[in-house]
Amino acid sequence: MTTEVAAVRIPAGGLRHELRAASVVWQREMIRFSRDRARVVSSLVQPVLFLFVLGGGLSSIVQAGTGSVDFKTFLFPGVLATSVLFTAAFAGISMVWDREFGFLREMLVAPVSTAAILTGKCVGGATVATLQSLVLLALAGTVGVPYDVVMLLELVGLLFLMAFMITALGLLLASRVKTIQAAMPMVQLIITPLMFLSGALFPLSGLPGWLTVLTHVNPMTYAVEPMRSVVFARLDTDAATLAAFDPGIHWGDYRVSLGLQVLVVVLACLLLLTAAVARFARTE
Question: Domain locations in the chain?
Fold first, then answer.
């Protein structure tokens, strides 16, 4: 009596196979996003409060000596960055849920690389965070920011890049914690200082020396400042207002160019994603 053995077909590897695996993970993030309307609404509450309540309350104080630019106009790029910050971080840290429910192990035993899975997760988290920020972009005109099509497209691209970086950071954190109870405090402990030390909520001009150093070593600063530069390039401002609200980033006497700032963010994305891949490959 002969026993028939079913043939097992292993998909061929290669770049196309890895890209398909990453796209499946991305699609899963889109499905989760479309089914969680409460998360969409709640994630917009804090940025709107920052923009209209904090910005409106501080406008009367900060307005003196800053020309015709309202403080809410200055705050708009930083609030955009904040709107994607926590969404992207929790998209990355959600890998802890996948581990607890066993889905992560199912993904890692599939015939695809860990890099493809985590890249798909980063692209998915960045896409979700960027889509949510579009609501705030629609409010640009209410705070004195012009509806310039090129500017809006540049902001979307910069937001996506920053969200990718923060999602990769969330994945790196997820590789080190095993329970969601431990993950939440860790996210708050790391993400909140990144936000406050990025210049999102205050100008980078006239800071104490120690605070200047902290903002310069914070990778999020190099994601926020290009957004502010893109916005202020479309505003009619005098030199004094520009120096107060958008002084740029300086390494000593060298003013860091916009292209170099974006390059710093790209390198941070690659380093964080590489570290996350290495950690997951070693621990799972």
Answer: 36-283
